[in-house]
Write a structure and sequence with these properties.
The structure holds two protein chains of two kinds. By secondary structure, chain A is an alpha+beta fold. Chain A has four domains: 25-205, Jelly Rolls (Sandwich), CATH 2.60.120; 219-361, Galactose-binding domain-like (Jelly Rolls), CATH 2.60.120.260; 366-464, Immunoglobulins (Immunoglobulin-like, Sandwich), CATH 2.60.40; 580-713, Heat Shock Protein 90 (2-Layer Sandwich). Chain A has nine helices and 37 strands. In chain A, the strands form eight sheets. In chain A, strands 16, 17, 18, 19, 20, 21, 22 and 23 form an eight-stranded antiparallel sheet that branches. In chain A, strands 1, 3, 5, 6, 8, 9 and 11 form a seven-stranded antiparallel sheet that branches. A five-stranded mixed sheet of chain A has the order 26-32-31-28-29, with no helix packed on it. Chain A is elongated. Chain A starts with a helix and ends with a strand. By secondary structure, chain B is α/β, with parallel strands linked by helices. Chain B is 58% helix and 13% strand. Chain B contains nine helices and five strands, in the order E-H-E-H-E-H-E-H-E-H-H-H-H-H. Chain B has helices spanning 15-27, 40-50, 66-76, 91-99, 112-123, 131-143, 152-163, 167-174, 178-209, and strands at residues 6-11, 31-37, 54-58, 81-86, 104-107. In chain B, helix 2 packs parallel to helix 3 (66-76) and helix 3 (66-76) packs across helix 9 (178-209). Chain B is globular, with a radius of gyration of 17 Å. Classes of the chains: A alpha+beta, B alpha/beta. The interface between A and B is medium-sized, with 33 and 30 residues.
């Protein structure tokens, strides 16, 4: 059941994780320099529904630039954003002819806010062709004809960079284009009446398939590169084009000391590792003695780097096509920067030479929310888990897309189990640890299969119910221990009392024994019963999740019951009226009945009829007979594999004979093996010997019979 | 499906034990603890109004033994099932309680689940007879010839129980149905009670006249 729930939950988690990757941001408070139609129809531009007849439209004022401003319900921080402009009003030609995008970090975005251009990295559209006219501006083509008479509604899909900023709002500005110079006609779309209807403006955090941030970043070289046979030159962008087959290196006459490649990562980043891919075809020994340097600002060639190191300083080289991983300890300085410079320390021509440069930023997973049994738990630098919580659920923010196979990140609870658990889902669920002081750790997997070196760490403080408290347990065990000592002391007091009484009257002894029995019965016995019951209650309250039930608690409860049983035995033997064989026989029969109840062994009993009243036994004899019988019964359970047992206590001619039989597998009974079989057998023999009794054991493959004999002196 | 709820009262002077037991019983689906008494006289006064199905009665109560309480209560509440609670096995008192009309006894250190099972069994009308009790009953009938004698079948059932045979084994051996075995056991108990309850009643009445 629990398993099933977990599986379902994991599935749900995987789905949520996937959905979270494309979940649009909530945009509120649309404002515009102008809009036609009602407030309600204008508000449709951020209603979350892409299609519909209404949205932002400017009919009547389509000859001037117009702007739309939207506010993020929560400020957004992401390296890249997916921005979509929908024109799905059933007027397929009425898409924006030209527009640019901007963002603000102002607390309350409005048309008057400070707006910064939003760099558009990639874009696509349905019918029109988009063309870049600036880093944050695009122009659409006019559609002149269509073959089948139907033009699809337009959607612009853009990916924009938001480097290191927390955006609070976005702005789209529609720019008029010249429709007809002769008529001096301008418009915001190409088709009459030259207006548009933007049915939805949508922003979502872009999740990349790769965590390599150098991909598609601009690269420059200090000198022109190698001239190919066809007269073209190698291009430095080959290093960040994502294609391992394209390589870049300087020409032969380039002064080696001066040459460098410089990759602009577009922002200053803390770096986890850099991957340098060797060319895979030939000359791969040239990726050697490569100097890697990081700068925060674009500087002269000889500027001091924030970090620098030399890869393969010993002159060796990675295998063909292999990726050389560079980490901070391969160089000196702070492993962060915006500009990555590669130069060669090798004497060889055509170096530095390589196929691809990949840069993986330091990425620590961030926990968004934590729930315990469905209820939200707050966390700061530690997570405090209230008592009784069984399952913990965590939702994570991890910037990249989950790979189709393999992990997104891994986690473990250090201090409980140090083993890592890989996860593809941004939602994980695990049972509440049963130790406090464990540390939850998580680590991101980069798309090149390298684990990020940084760790998310969250110490877990697990609060437990008072009855699970270690000190309380120790206290209870101490109580049990003291009781045991107390019993021992009472017993020795009884023995002393006995010696005194032997000199005095028999009656005084009987009184003393009865008093001790009563005291222990009422006080100690009652308290033990209460403790055992309390243990049960604690176990029961925990029993709902049986798998997590706490072993020490049940062991302790069982222990208390055992102490109580022992005490019962002591009290029983303290009572003077039990100093007779009849009473002992009833006791042994009853003990066996209780002992085998709940076991697969069925026990039957001999008759009591032949045992006359008034056969007195000394406490030593009684004790030896009872303890030896107990031992024999215990052996049946432990060793015999029997299905039936029988006990018979008989009396004849002044002799008592206790026979304890089973139909089990038996064991070999030569004299040597009997004496060495188990300490138990030796004990029985010694016990019976000490009171002048006898001990016999008969065993074969059909069963075992133990005979305890004692003759009245 | 909702089970019929068994209404239970506890008479126990150890308040802590009583409260733990009550908490546990209230956690079961089919047992509700409707009242707890620490004083035996209060219990005798109130239980006929409370109308529990089963009463758990401590053996050692201040001022009055649980055995007497059971005898008195059964006069007024004939349908009541009484279970004796004892700290330790004390054959004499346990047997006295059975004679007074208790339908069973429990040792206090028994696990909570065993206590709950005993309550259910008592409520279903079963007065289980262990080998140990059977031996005591045999001894009782042997000791006191004034009791209404047992029939040969009842004697045989009793002897087999003392021997440790299960109900099923006895039924098979005697060629009768298991429920017939139960009937015999009930009749043995009745004969035991008829004898001793008259004594208990006489004692109770004489105390009232003082």
């Amino acid at each position: 059941m629990t398993m099933m729930r977990t599986v379902l939950f994991l599935l749900a988690g995987a789905w949520l994780g996937r959905a979270a990757a494309t979940e649009p941001l909530t945009l509120i408070r649309p404002q515009a320099s102008f809009f036609s139609g009602s407030d309600a129809s204008f508000a449709r531009v951020v209603d979350g529904i892409a299609a519909g007849p209404e949205g932002w439209s400017v009919t009547g004022k389509q000859e001037e630039a117009q702007s739309l401003v939207v506010t993020c319900a929560r400020p957004v921080e992401a390296a890249e954003l997916d921005i979509s402009l929908f024109f799905l009003a059933g007027r397929p030609f009425n898409y924006l002819a030209e527009f640019h995008l901007a963002f603000t970090t102002d607390e309350t975005p409005s048309l008057q806010s400070t707006w910064r251009p939003l760099e558009i990295l990639r874009f696509s559209s349905e019918a029109a062709t988009l063309q870049r006219i600036g880093s944050s501006a695009l122009r659409a083509s006019k559609i002149f004809y269509n073959v089948n008479g139907s033009v699809p509604d337009e959607i612009y899909r853009l990916t924009a960079a938001l480097p290191g900023k927390k955006a609070t709002g976005f702005r789209v500005t529609a720019q008029p284009v010249v429709i007809s110079a002769e008529k001096n006609l301008q418009g915001l779309s190409y088709y009459a009446p030259y207006d548009f209807t933007m049915t939805e403006f949508r922003v979502a955090i872009h999740r990349r398939d790769t965590t390599n941030i150098a991909l598609h970043c601009p690269v420059r070289s200090s000198h022109p590169l190698y001239r190919n046979a066809d007269g073209t030159f190698m291009r430095p962008e080959a290093l960040t084009d994502g294609l391992p087959a394209t390589i870049a290196h300087p020409g032969r006459l380039t002064p080696a000391q001066e040459f460098f490649f410089e990759i602009d990562l577009r922002q200053i980043v803390d770096i986890d590792h850099i991957g340098l891919r060797n060319r895979g075809d030939e000359q791969f020994h040239r990726l050697s003695r490569l100097k890697v340097a990081l700068h925060q600002a674009q500087a002269k060639a000889d500027a001091r780097a924030d970090w620098q190191g030399i890869v393969r300083a010993d002159g060796s080289h990675p295998a063909a096509g292999a990726l050389e991983i560079v980490r901070f300890h391969h160089g000196i300085g702070t492993f962060r920067g915006r500009y990555l410079r590669l130069s060669s320390e090798a004497v060889e021509d055509y170096t530095p030479q390589l196929a691809e440069v990949e840069v993986y930023p330091k990425t620590t997973p961030q926990v968004i929310s934590i729930k315990g049994d469905g209820k939200k738990l707050d966390h700061q630098s530690t997570l405090e888990i209230p008592p009784g919580i069984r399952r913990i659920e965590m939702q994570w923010e991890i910037p990249q897309k989950a790979p189709t196979d393999g992990a997104l990140f891994r986690w473990r609870i250090r201090g409980q189990s140090d083993e890592w658990v890989n996860s593809r889902s941004r939602v994980i669920e695990f049972p509440c640890p049963d130790v406090t002081g464990a540390v939850f750790e998580a680590q991101v997997l980069h798309s090149d299969g390298q684990w990020d070196q940084s760790l998310f760490q969250l110490p877990l403080i697990v609060r437990v119910h008072w009855w699970k408290n270690l000190w309380l347990r120790i206290a209870m065990m101490t109580i049990a221990f003291l009781i045991a000592i107390g019993v021992g002391m009472l017993w020795s007091r009884y023995r002393t009392a006995r010696q005194v009484a032997a000199l005095k009257a028999e009656a005084a002894l009987a009184n003393e024994r009865a008093r001790i029995a009563r005291d222990m019965h009422d006080d100690v016995g009652g308290k033990l019963a209460r403790l055992a019951m309390l243990g049960d209650l604690a176990l029961h309250q925990d029993a709902i999740s049986a798998h997590s039930s706490f072993q020490p608690l049940s062991t302790m409860t069982d222990g208390i019951r055992e102490v109580a049983t022992e005490l019962e035995q002591v009290i029983w033997s303290l009572k003077p009226n039990h100093d007779c064989l009849h009473s002992l026989a009833r006791r042994i029969y009853h003990y066996a009945e209780e002992f085998f109840s709940g076991t697969p062994i069925h026990c039957s009993f001999g008759s009591m009829q032949q045992i006359p009243d008034g056969i007195s036994l000394t406490p030593e004899t009684r004790n030896a007979l009872f303890r030896s019988s107990k031992e024999a019964l215990a052996n049946i359970i432990k060793h015999s594999l029997a299905s039936k047992a029988h006990i018979d206590i008989a009396w004849s001619d002044g002799q008592c004979l206790i026979s304890i039989m089973d139909n089990g597998q038996g064991f070999v009974v030569d004299e040597a093996s009997v004496s060495s079989y188990k300490n138990g057998l030796t004990n029985m023999r010694q016990r019976m010997g000490s009171v002048g009794g006898s001990f016999h054991i008969d065993s074969n493959s059909r069963g075992t019979t133990v005979r305890l004999g004692w003759a009245q002196p | 499906m909702s089970l019929p709820v068994i209404r239970v009262s506890i008479v126990e002077d150890d308040e802590a034990y009583c409260s733990i037991l009550r908490q546990h019983l209230d956690q079961t689906e089919d047992i509700r603890c409707i009242s707890c008494y620490h004083d035996p006289q209060q219990a005798i006064n109130n239980l006929p109004t409370d109308q529990p199905d089963v009463v758990l009665m401590d053996l050692n109560l201040p001022g009055k033994s649980g055995i007497e309480c059971i005898a008195e209560l059964l006069i007024r509440m004939t349908a009541l099932q009484a279970i004796m609670l004892t700290v330790f096995e004390q054959d004499e008192q346990v047997f006295a309680a059975l004679e007074a009309g208790a339908c069973g006894y429990l040792v206090k250190r028994n696990s909570l689940s065993r206590i709950a099972d005993a309550i259910r069994e008592a409520h279903e009308g079963g007065s289980p007879m262990s080998a140990n009790i059977a031996r005591m009953v045999v001894a009782s009938f042997r000791r006191d010839p004034s009791q209404q004698p047992l029939s040969p079948q009842e004697s045989e059932v009793l002897a087999r129980l003392a021997h440790g045979d299960t109900y099923a084994a006895i039924a098979a051996e005697m060629n009768i149905a298991v429920h017939t075995v139960r009937n015999y056991i009930r009749r043995i108990y009745t004969k035991l009670h008829v004898h001793s309850r008259t004594e208990a009643v006489a004692k109770f009445m004489s105390q009232k006249h003082h």
